[in-house]
Amino acid sequence: MTATLERGLNALREQIDAPVASFFTSCVSCGLCAEACIFYKETGDPELTPIHKLDLMRRVWSNEYTLFGRAKSMLGMGHKITEGDLTKWERLVYDSCTMCGRCTLVCPVGNDIAMMIRKMREGMSSSGHAPAELVGAAERHSDYGSPMGKLHTMLAAKIKAAEKETGIPIEMDKAGVDYLVLLSAQEIVEYSDVLPALARIFKKAGVTWTISNEGFEATNVGVQIGNRDIARNLVSMVVGAAEKLGVKGIISPECGHAYQALRWEGPNLIGRSYDFEVVHIIELLDRLAAQGKLKTKGKDHTRLTFHDPCQINRRGGINKEPRRLLDMVADNFIETEDAGTMNWCCGGGGGVGANDRAADLRFKAFNRKKRQFEGVGAEKVVTMCAYCHHTLDEQLELHNMDSIETQGLTEMIGEYLDDEA
Amino acid sequence: MNNPYFDLLMWARGPGFDIALTILIGGLLLRVVEIVVLSRKKDLAKPKGSPVLQGLKTIFTRSVPRKGLIKEAPVTYIGGYIFHIGFAIAFLFLGAHIALIDDLIGIQWPEANKALIETAAALAVVALIALAWTRITNPVRRALTTFDDWLVWLLSILPLVTGYIAVNRIFGDGTLMMAIHMLSAEALMVAFPFTKLMHAVTFAMARYYNGSIQGRKGAES
Fold this sequence. Notes:
Chain A is mainly alpha-helical.
């Protein structure tokens, strides 16, 4: 056995706990998880059945954590894992799963398959089987503060531009404010309209905020690769910045896995609860609206629909908030089939979007969204995750549907903010 | 007393049943302990919803399929329901079974009429055949299928078929058929802890964990 294989197996062993054991024990191989999986449904490839993607972890559990399996292994009957297996499973664990979690909600015995994929990726990355693009992003983030490299200068420029546009000063590293605002690299580079929108919304609402030079990027490629050490370091950067500035809360930006990483995995990664709140920007905007601190004027009349980011709605519980906000600013809002908790993934989450090997799968998976958007005759798609936004832009272009406009919900609220009220 | 199969029936009713019951209960306990001792780390993220309540709720709510899913896999869903309900009726409401349970743990309840039980058993058998058919024809189910699945299928259908034959004296010697029926049920009991039949117990744990993980986040499950 090679050293890397052994390292991978050890990482898998560390991931096996009572929930995982109860899930594998309960599986009746009914195959219903496949019916929930966008990659299976759009390719028809039975290899892509969600529970099958976990087969290597299931083998470790069966061979080593069950008495019957241990007895079989001792007799040389256990189905061992080879280096070749790990290579073969890369496509199943990384390329064809965004950890969207539809399977988790469909499984009749209640197996949280998406959570197990997250765990299995720990073993895959430890044995050197994570996609090169994600490993590169992890290195850039660890060394330069963002998965796209050093963005400090670009951020400073975008902040200056936002100040100029809005006439509102944005102070970096200001201690004692209400919130530390985080952004995703995607927002800094591609969707920087979000900054002026935030400046105007928060000024109107009387919310004080800042951005830290030491931790402004919210994404966490460690969570996508499945590497707890990297994930912990990236969360620590942001937590350190928040604690240094003594803020009341951190605002998780429009980014799906960033919310998972900061809000739900973060305390477990660093081994302690936070003294501050982590709130998703859409949760906060909804709260401000309910308090009467966020007022809008006018409505978008475009026939628009909403794309639910999996990690924010299905796996994050933020479902009604964006809809209440959309109702404030749109009067031709129509839901697609399966919208809300069971929405179909854009196909780009969980690191799949950054993985070149998965380009073809991603294209095929998007056929589902294509049909859904066509089904409601959408002229515009609004979302609350910059990476979903990026994937929508990419795939709408590739599917010759670029007449459909896309927008982040925060920017949209900014656009209709009533500056005079 | 000249029936050559009498001793076999007596063995099946006596020592055979005791051995099967011991393996079933011992094995079940072992398998459940095997899971529980692995435990899970305390979740340090401040909960948004109620993990415990939603975990408990999900044990029940997950029995209902998500909207639109039945049409994606009608045989699996409908066959699955019919088999489980049919098997449960035949197992729990036949007079002789109730008497056996009463003997063991001193609890009894009214029996159902024969027509209901036989209909339930027959439907369960038909459902099992339909499920086996999709296991062969559906590419996803075929790819997932292992020896365990066929073994469990066989062990589930045998008590239903042999019970029906024995009670109605369809063919063969009545004593022998009853002995075979009991032995088939005992085979099911013995295999239970070592096969996917375990889901009949651990589904509650799995659904609880699923619900509690989602519930902590205030997300649906």
